[in-house]
Each structure stands twice: as structure tokens, then as C-alpha cells.
Amino acid sequence: MQAFDSNTKMIPSVRSLRPMGRMPLFRRRNEDMQNPAMLPAPAMIQAGKQITEERLRKAKEKLNRYIAAKAMDDDRIVRNEAWWQGRNFAQMQEQGNEYNKKRPTMWTVNVIMGKHADMLEAYPEPAILPREKSDEMTADMLTHIVPVVMEQNEFETTYNMQAWKKNKSGTAIYGIFWDTNKLNGLGDIQVSAIEPLNIFWEPGITDIQKSENVFLVEKVNREQLEQRYPQIAGKTQQSNYGTKDYTQSRANEEDKEKVVIVDWYYHTWQGKKKTLHYCKFCGDTVLYASEEDPAMEKGWYHDGNYPFVIDALFPQEKNLMGLGYIDRCKNAQESIDLLDQAITLNALANAIPRFLVNEETGINMSDFFDLTKNEIYIEGSLDETHIRQIQVPKLDGSTITVLNNKIEELKQTSGNQDVNNGSTSGVTSASGIAALQQAAGRTSKSAIKNTYTAYAKIIKMVIERIRQFYDTPRKFRILGTNMRPEFVEFDNKMLQMQPLDVPGYEDMMRLPVFDVHVEAQKKNPYSKMAQNELSLQLLNAGVFNPQMVDQSMLLLESMDFDGKEKIQQKLAEMGGMQQQLLMMQQIALGLAEKYEPQTAEELSMMIMGQAGQTGAMLPPADVEIPEEAKESGVTAKARQRSAEASQPT
């Protein structure tokens, strides 16, 4: 722990690239209300009653309708999880041979693992861009600070888990909240994974912000809830509203001690302004309602949007939920499992012979199957009517062909070709492998593009939470110029309403708004190799020579590759520095000839030698050189001798 000032307040120790903030000497009004887990009891709210019994009853009716409309998607998610756990046959109508064990294959699991790896390789990184020039500095600060906030939320772990959900069942859902418990009460942004089975919205929409209501349902321990809200002791109800659960088929004794609480988000309109409000209730008891709180006149979150972002894989019409790879591969996977079971049983039947034995033959079957005994005694006669081996026909090659075709169908359906798993069909060059992966990874690129769109929405909501709640300055350690750590202080002053700097409209205000550009934080090894090869080619072509700035700029303008703008900027800087260096050398030579003639020739030879090594040239004709710095006869002779010495004999 480290003291921040002479007060007794302390700040938590932080790791590199983590935000640091001073503990406030006061607590912001109603700050507990922004975290659904830290809500005041209803008795603390003194405003008029807004959530009446009738209004609450209608809200619960809408919740039940939303749950019923989403039931098919929830059933599909639960079944898909069973497939992921290897319980394929339990979900299949055709069971194959009922007397044999079911051993499902894992081709679909292999598909999901490959797509998950693609998403992790393309982990997003935001670049926040201003829409006005006056907001450039703020946008640059946000570009450095927002990734730190996401890192503090361990978003990479959240992204990892949501990538599994998206690929398995087609939908990943994120919640962007304000948590007042963070940083010892200072509060900070919370980016969380939302379980798709626990959230419900108006059916038939494709944008969650257009839903009339959004409900988030959660099971909590009855005893802990009553400790936090003593006024509801004995009033809690054990109602789950018919929601689905991954373990619903198994008895869960712990659920008997839990009750369901509901976070109800809804919009109200004040003229043309949309306001977000929030209500938390359990059974018929309202635990908190923002409409009844005088401090929440502007709503729960000031941007007016539901704090949820949905990332769907394969979209469905009139549905926010997407389909996953299990849904796409299920039919082919069922055929593969049934064929694999039949082929395996046929192979076992041919490998382990079985016999039909007449009970009157008098054969001791224990001796018959004991391979260590050379002699087996029987009672009575023995012929083919008493014992006969069961002949099992061998499967022909068409069965194997059908199985392989089904496996290929699954690969094609999922876009999981062999090159994605490392097979390059004999191609060894980096550019060739990169080209194969580029063509094979089109389906992953499409899914990742959708994820980037969802990620941009998450970052915009993070910026809105900063705008609303970062009224206390916070200190951050970021990576600044030249990758060196820098300590910066940031609050939300530059994000608030500001005067419009337009003649004639000085009395109007504007709200700083930013665009979010998302790109992959890390590139795959083959992309890096191709980029490195391009850099070496540019170096060998002399593009980085400051004497060829004009030609290099023309060349780069006709090219398109990542990082081109930075190279152009550096080349322009190098060209300007080179021109200044040449002018300074000419001035130095002129002054040396005038005041130190004995050293002028030596200095001239030194400059000419450096110019010969670097390919330097004289300044352009349009560069004005002072009269006293113009090349003298001594310099001209030195230049001539230097040129003659460099010629081969």
C-alpha cells in the first residue's frame, strides 16, 4: 500500500499499465445505485411511488412472454452444451445399435477449437478517433487509457470465454456497468460476460436498443438477500419464471435455497429524449427503482442505452440470437457418428469370432474359449449341426467412402479445411502459406468482423461510462512515445458539453463524440513474416534512403499495406532533417574558409567522404544558401580530388 497524501486514505498498489486513482474524501451522491449488486433498500428512497403493484404485475407478465418467446433458442443452447460435452447420442433421434456403447466422434469439437483459436489470434485493440480537430488530444488519451481499463477488467479472459459461447451456440453477450466497489470505493467500469439463458428482450427485434424492456434474471442465496434487505424477510418467493439451466435435468439441492431476483431495464420518453431507467425486484417486492430516486432525473445511464452488447455468429431473421457451429454441423456429425459406430461394430465382429452352439452337444464353453488349453473334451458327437461360427459380412469400400464424404461435408460446411489445421499440401514458402490461409480463413474473418463491430459498441459504452462517472481525476500508467512508461491524469471534463466554436453559433453547445476503429492486437506468424519480407524489399530498393524521399513517396502512394502511413511520416521527417544537415554543412564550410582557411580543405574532405558513404547530394537548386556559405574554390578542388580518389584505377 502507498499513501497518496497526508490523509489516511490509501490507494491500492497497481501493476504496470494499470490505473491508479486517489480514494475520494467524499462519496458521490447515490453512487451505490450504479451497481445492481449494491442497491439501497426501498426505505432509503423518499420520492413518490412510481413502480406500483399494477405496473410491476404488467412487467412480470411481459417477462413471462419474453421467456416463452425465447424458449426454443434456450433449449437449443442447452442441447448444444450437451453436444460440446460429448453427449451427442443423447440428443439424437436415431440411436444406432441400442445394445452397444455410444462413442461419439469429435469432429465438431475440432471445428470449434479451430474457430476459437482464430478469434484469440485476432484479439481486438481499439483506436479512438475524433470527429473534430479540437478533440484530438482527448481521443489520443482515450486510445491509451481505455485499453488499460479493459485490461483491469481482465477482458481478455472474458473475451476468451465468450469466444467459446459464440462458436458453440452462436451468441456472446456483454454487459457494461459501473461498479462502485472497485478501487476501494472510488468506482470503475465493469465489463462482464452475460449468460444468454438469463437475459430476455422483446421478441422479433434485431437491435436490443429497440426492445421495450430488457430483463436480467439471476438466482441468489435467500439468506444473503434477506441480510442485505431485511424488510423482505419472509416475502421471498422461489420462482424461476420457467427459465432454462444447463443442469436442469439433474436435481440441484442448492437451488432450493435460492430465489430469483430480476433486473428490469426500460426506456421512458421525456419529449424527444429517451431515458433509461432501472428497477430491481424479487417476487412482488421492489428493491430499488431509479424512477423513485430524485438523483436519477437523467436516468440510470446518461447515454440512454441498455448496457448490453450482443455478438451473434450466424444471424437469424427477426431474432437477436445467432446460430453456432454445432447447429451448422449437427446433421453431418450425426451421420458420422452412426456410420462410425456401424464400422466399428463390424470390425469388432470380424476380429472376435462368435459361435452358435447346440446345448445338447456337451461342450464345455469355458474350455472352448480358453486359448491355453490344447484339448477340449465333449460329450456326444460333433458336427456342423451342433456348433457353427457366425459369419459376419465385411463392409465394402462404399461405406468408408460415405463416411469420408460426410467428414468432408462437415469441413466444408464449417469452413474448417485442412490448411487451417496446419496442412499446407506441400507448400513451404511463407507467402504461399499465407495465401492458403487467407483463402481458407474467410469464414473466420466474417465472424471476427462481427466481433469487432460488437467490440466497437463495447468501447463506445466504456467511453460513455467515463463521460458520466470519471469526475474525480485518476492517474494512469501508460506506454507513451518510444514505448516508455508515462504517468498521466485524466477525468471527464473534456468529454462534457462544450461551446460550439462556430461564428454565429457561440451560444450553442456540442458533445464530443468519437469513432472507434478496431484492429487485431497481434497478427499471425505468417502475416508478420510477409510484412517483414516486404520491409526488407523496401530497404533493398532504397526506399528508406533520405536522398530518395520524393521517389519513395511516389512509390508508397501506389502501395497498400499496414503501417504505410507511419513509414511515409518517418520518410518526410528524414528528408527534412537531411536538407537541414546539407545546408548546415555548406554554411560550416563557408565560415571555415573565411575564418579558418587552414581547416577548410580538411573539413571539406571529411564531408565529401561522408557523402560518398551515404550517397548524399548537394541541396536542391531552389534552396537558398547564404553568400558566405557558398562553395569556394578550396571546396571545389577538394570535391574534385575526392571524386578522383573514388574512381577505380
What is the topological layout?
Blueprint: E1 2-3, E2 10-11, E3 19-21, H1 53-69, H2 71-84, H3 107-121, E4 124-130, H4 136-152, H5 155-169, E5 171-179, E6 188-194, E7 199-201, E8 213-221, H6 222-228, E9 258-270, E10 273-282, E11 285-289, E12 308-312, E13 314-316, E14 319-323, H7 325-351, E15 355-357, H8 365-368, E16 387-389, H9 397-414, H10 430-440, H11 442-469, E17 474-479, E18 485-490, E19 498-499, E20 509-510, E21 514-520, H12 525-540, H13 549-557, H14 564-595, H15 597-614, H16 633-645
Antiparallel strand pairs: 1-2, 3-17, 4-21, 5-6, 5-12, 7-8, 8-9, 9-10, 10-11, 13-14, 15-16, 17-18, 19-20
Helix pairs in contact: 3-5, 3-7, 7-9, 10-12, 13-14, 14-15, 15-16
Describe the structure.
With 649 residues, this protein is α+β, with helices and mostly antiparallel strands. Helix content is 40%, strand content 17%. It is built from 16 helices and 21 strands. The chain has helices at 53-69, 71-84, 107-121, 136-152, 155-169, 222-228, 325-351, 365-368, 397-414, 430-440, 442-469, 525-540, 549-557, 564-595, 597-614, 633-645; strands at 2-3, 10-11, 19-21, 124-130, 171-179, 188-194, 199-201, 213-221, 258-270, 273-282, 285-289, 308-312, 314-316, 319-323, 355-357, 387-389, 474-479, 485-490, 498-499, 509-510, 514-520. The strands form eight sheets. A five-stranded antiparallel sheet has the order 7-8-9-10-11. A three-stranded antiparallel sheet has the order 3-17-18. Strand 1 and strand 2 form a beta hairpin. Helix 10 crosses helix 12 (525-540). The longest helix is centred in the C-terminal third of the chain and has 32 residues, at 564-595. The chain is flat, with a radius of gyration of 37 Å. The model is unreliable at 1-47, 613-623 and 645-649 (pLDDT under 50).
